[in-house]
Amino acid sequence: MDKKRPRTRIQMKNTAAIMEAALDIFSQHGFRGATLDLIAKSSGLSKPNLLYYFPSKEAIHIELLSGLMETWIAPLRALDPQGDPITELMSYVDRKLQMSQDYPRESRLFANEIVQGAPRMFISISEDLKALVDEKSAILQTWSDDGKIAKVNPRHLLFSIWALTQHYADFDVQIRAILDGHEEDPFEEARHFVHTAFLRIITP
């Protein structure tokens, strides 16, 4: 499809349907397990019609990942160096956990790409994300040096926040199977536990 020309309403509707279907398929089956046939069927379009909008499975996957990356790093961008350090970090933890609750498919899509070696987004990770992490780590290091937060390794603190909050999206099936009805909403108790854990880690 010629992306330079304004898209019609039906083209925008079909593109949105493809993206929604692809998010479901890729998050469930990963890149290797997903097929154009599955995406076309889920989107309600024929395979030839789908190929009018995207020339390949990889093109759809890249489109999804491109939109996801900015959404995924937005909470880290929002970390304010002028704000109260404890408040800023706990707000970041809360936003990341909320994203896992609101965007579980997107989280699994991202995780699947990383597990495969990030072949379609390595540049974004090694350049854009790394630059942002370097910038925010410098802020965390300053807060730590000034005694405003505990002495922690900034990057490993961020890794820990990512790991613990995104776990609730990426391993949702495992969590719910183990809880087996003990908690009506796993995120309610998770929010209390995660908040308490990181507050103890970062408080001087």
Domain module tally: 2
Rg result: 20 Å
Q: How far is the N terminus from the C terminus?
A: 56 Å
**Could you say which overall geometry the principal axes of the C-alpha atoms support?**
globular
Keyword list:
globular; mainly alpha; 204 residues; Arc Repressor Mutant, subunit A
Present the secondary structure layout.
Blueprint: H1 9-33, H2 36-43, H3 47-53, H4 57-77, H5 85-102, H6 104-115, H7 122-145, H8 154-170, H9 172-179, H10 186-202
Structural account:
It contains ten helices and no strands. The protein folds into two domains: 1-55, Arc Repressor Mutant, subunit A (Orthogonal Bundle); 64-202, Tetracycline Repressor, domain 2, CATH 1.10.357.10. The chain is an all-alpha fold and 204 residues long. It starts with 8 loop residues before the first helix and ends with a helix. Helices cover 77% and strands 0% of the residues. The mean pLDDT is 91. The chain has helices at 9-33, 36-43, 47-53, 57-77, 85-102, 104-115, 122-145, 154-170, 172-179, 186-202.
